Amino acid sequence: MTPSKTPAAEGYRMPAEWDHHAATWLGWPHNAADWPGKIAAIHWVYGEIIRKLAPEPVRILVNSAAHEKQARGVLERVGTDPKQAEFYRIPTDRGWTRDSGPIFVRSGGETPQVAIAGFRFNAWAKYRNWKKDAQVPARAARSLGLKVLPAAFDGRDVVLEGGSIDVNGRGALLTTEECLLDPKVQVRNPGFTREDYERVFADVLGATKTTWLGRGIAGDDTHGHVDDVCRFVTSNTVVLCQEENSRDENYGPLQENRERLEGARLEDGSRFEVLTLPMPAPLHFEGRRLPASYANFYIGNDAVLVPTFNDPNDREVLGVLKEVFSGRMVVGIHAVDLVWGLGTLHCLTQQEPARKRNSGDERRRSWPPAARPSGVFRGHYVDR
User: Fold this and answer.
1) Residue 356: Cβ within 10 Å count
2) pLDDT over 90 at 379, yes or no
3) pLDDT value at position 99?
4) For residues 238 and 215, what is the distance between their CA atoms, to the nearest angstrom?
């Protein structure tokens, strides 16, 4: 891309997740191999997700008329409003919409436009069944009448999953070195350097300041997605997972991520405000550690959906997020079954921003000292 033709040069930027949505996208589950012995239960979890997002529209990817009929039957039985769901006959391989679905960007100005960034998907550089998933963004763009903007570097199309990044909508982006810079494991873009990625983030997503964390959590088959580790909750605040048990395999990597954030800066040069989230007790399936993480929550227009794991820390996490998202209902969604698929709520969803930004959704917050949530790193708190 030449500088004059980049999406950012044309005024496009990826909005923050808490900015107002036109809809949430989901792929109705069908790949039983993702949830061994659990696929029937997963349908009901999806129904609960959609019901709790109401009245936000939900755009659901289905493979066929029969697949749609099955989904409609579940939604009717769990009591969703039939007008909330819109169905799109766009076949998928696996349906993890955060990663294979469209990554939306929006322009500024008096007549904002929404478009889709043309990143490629290759199933986390791991699985063989991905060709249907790879077509989802382009097919969604045709269905909505949206442009697909170039996402290339040095003449190469760029592979990028939505779960590997998180943005504050003002120019800051979080990612991990494990996911994007490991030279041997699950390599998305062979030969890409840190600087190459930062140029792509700036040119395509309008993110001019990238903060590189180290590693993701144990059990994550994406090899380090940031949405299981650290998430923006306001334009200057993140929640960061921490493991208290020093013998747990997550302890060291999560401590290192904390240290990296201590020296990091946002796009305006200010420090991060950091809230900590505990980790649930380890979950395993057939001897394998599952990537259970409270950071995999999803921010809807009226509700924040939080994965819960029948764990004593469920209550603490819901309390922390209720303090942050005081204008939204914070809802726990049972995710012990979901995480058998190696992902939970954020991995399943993708937000489509409304064309016009709702200024009421910008929740930049500095807590007065007496009102700081207990999880704030006090050394990061910035009085304003």
Assistant:
1) 13
2) no
3) 98
4) 17
Q: How confident is the model at residue 109 (pLDDT cuts 50, 70, 90)?
A: confident
Global pTM value: 0.93
pLDDT digits (tens, 9 = 90+) for 310-343: 999 999 999 999 999 999 999 999 999 999 999 9
Average pLDDT, the chain: 93
Our CA angle for 241, 344, 230, nearest 5°, is: 25
Residue 255, phi then psi, degrees to nearest 5: -65, -40
Q: Which of 179, 230, 241, 347 is catalytic?
A: 347
Structure token pair of residue 205: 């997503």
DSSP letter string, 178-239: HHHH-SSSS-SSTT--HHHHHHHHHHHH---EEEEE----TT-TTSS-GGGTEEEEETTEEE
CA dist 168 to 21, 208, 234, 308, Å? 15, 11, 7, 24
pLDDT for 4? 61
At residue 356, the pLDDT reads 80
Per the annotation, the verdict on 347 as an active-site residue is yes
Per-residue pLDDT at 5: 87
Using a pLDDT cut of 70, give the percent of the chain over it. Answer: 92
Sign of CA dihedral 173, 177, 179, 184: positive
Strands (E), 5-84: 12-13, 21-27, 58-62
Nearest to 230 by CA among 175, 172, 307: 175
Contact 58, 26 (CB under 8 A): yes
What is the pLDDT at residue 358? Answer: 65
252 phi and psi angles, rounded to 5 deg: -65, -50
Q: Is 297 helix (H, G, I), strand (E, B) or coil?
A: coil
Element spanning 353, H or E: strand 349-353
Domain boundaries of the chain, sorted by first residue: 8-380
Whether 125 shows a pLDDT value over 70: the answer reads: yes
**Taking residues 75-83, what's their average pLDDT?**
96
d(CA 241, CA 295): 7
Q: What span, in angstroms and rounded, lies between the C-alpha atoms of 307 and 305?
A: 7
Could you tell me the two tokens for 95?
A: 């349906």
The fold of 8-380 is: L-arginine/glycine Amidinotransferase; Chain A (3.75.10)
Asked if the peptide bond before residue 150 counts as cis, ω within 30 degrees of 0, the response is no
